[in-house]
């Protein structure tokens, strides 16, 4: 069994991410591998959408002893360039 590391150069131009994808070369053709990487990119693009992030997360501010759950509050906090210490993004799952 041989495993290959493939960096999707065409997809890296569309997004700012590096993917490490391990495939068994004996079972997949290069076109199938490229298709799988493209599907991974689409899934990650959907998951990383701000609307989906604020739906699945909450912000815990230990400094103020508050938990923020409304989409408006969360999107405002997530868009900040730098967070204060002890402010955490928590997944509700």
Structure, described:
The chain is α+β, with helices and mostly antiparallel strands. The chain is 40% helix and 23% strand. The protein is built from four helices and five strands. The chain has helices at residues 9-12, 30-47, 50-56, 71-78; strands spanning 3-6, 21-24, 57-61, 66-68, 87-91. It has a three-stranded antiparallel beta sheet with strand order 4-3-5. Strands 1-2 form a two-stranded antiparallel ribbon. Strand 3 and strand 4 form a beta hairpin. The longest helix is centred in the middle third of the chain and has 18 residues, at 30-47. The chain is elongated. The two termini are 36 Å apart. Residues 1-13 have low confidence and may be disordered.
Low-pLDDT runs of 5+ residues are: 1-13
- The main sheet orders its strands as 4-3-5
Structural class: alpha+beta
Give the overall shape, derived from the CA principal axes: elongated
Distance between the termini: 36 Å
Mean pLDDT: 81
Percent of residues in helical segments? Answer: 25-40%
Query: What is the element string, with H for helices and E for strands?
Result: EHEHHEEHE
Domains counted in the coordinates: how many? Answer: 2
Oligomeric state of the chains in view: single chain
Rounded Rg = 18 Å
Number of strands: 5
What's the story with the biggest beta sheet? 3 strands, antiparallel
The number of distinct helices, counting runs of at least 4 residues, comes to 4
Taken as a percent bin, the fraction of beta residues is 15-25%
């Amino acid at each position: 069994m041989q495993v290959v590391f493939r960096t999707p150069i065409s997809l890296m131009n569309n997004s700012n991410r590096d993917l490490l994808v391990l495939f068994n070369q004996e079972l997949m053709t290069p076109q199938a591998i490229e298709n799988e990487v493209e599907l991974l990119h689409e899934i990650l693009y959907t998951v990383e959408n701000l609307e989906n992030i604020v739906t699945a997360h909450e912000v815990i501010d230990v400094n103020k002893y508050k938990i923020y759950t409304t989409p408006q509050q969360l999107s405002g906090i997530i868009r900040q360039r730098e967070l204060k210490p002890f402010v955490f993004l928590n997944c509700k799952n």
